[in-house]
Amino acid sequence: MFEEVSRIVLATATAWILFLVIDVFFRLPQKGGVSGAEAIGSAIEGRGGNLYGGRMIGNIVSSPDASAGILLAACGVFVAGIPGGLAAAALVYIGNRICHDRGYAGTSGAVVATFVIAGFMQAGFLASDFIVGSVLAVLTIQGISHIHASRLIGRLWRWRA
Amino acid sequence: MESLIAAVICLTIALSGAIRAIIERDTLLRLPYVNVMNFGIAGFIVLLLPHPLTLGVAAAYFIGSTLEANAIASAYARREQQ
After folding, report:
1. Distance from the CA of B74 to the CA of which of A4, A41, A127, B44 falls in 20 to 30 A?
2. What's chain A's Rg over C-alpha atoms?
3. CB distance A135–B16 less than 8 Å?
């Protein structure tokens, strides 16, 4: 049990870094993709958070982004190995189109995550560790404190911009 | 079931997201918590039933719920503007 918990902690750290790096690389904090994402950003700013971080949280809500890509890729690898991960990337691509998302953060995240997870599995990790890892990673950004998470993303965005 | 701990964590996070969404007063700020719940449930579906078809079910659930959140947020934002 202790071994599984430590694997989950490492998988969470990997998924967290991968998800934030890809989302910030694809300029998700720059502007709200849809009017709802922009409004969520403003609402978080109104509570004392960072506008750029708020926009990224809004974009994550409004369209499958890299975190969704990592989650579905982990699910795909869990049920069917690398082909399953790539099938998940295709499903995320369809999801992006349905949501009118012009970016490719979700699809790229799913493809990158498929190979990262396959690599970690060579080192004894399980794909299920990454399913939990991506859920925990999104919990830290979306589900604990919007104000602190948005400030953290704002700081990352300043480095990128 | 080797991934029991994983399934329990996913379900716990989904429940915590649902509870936070109920407690939050601002409709727009409820949506990120609902998103956490969706992540937890999509992960839980796959962990509960590991089969290639389940991937389609989880993706359909996840993309459908994201589209719903997208529609709610956009409609709410447009109504506020008017």
Report:
1. B44
2. 15
3. no
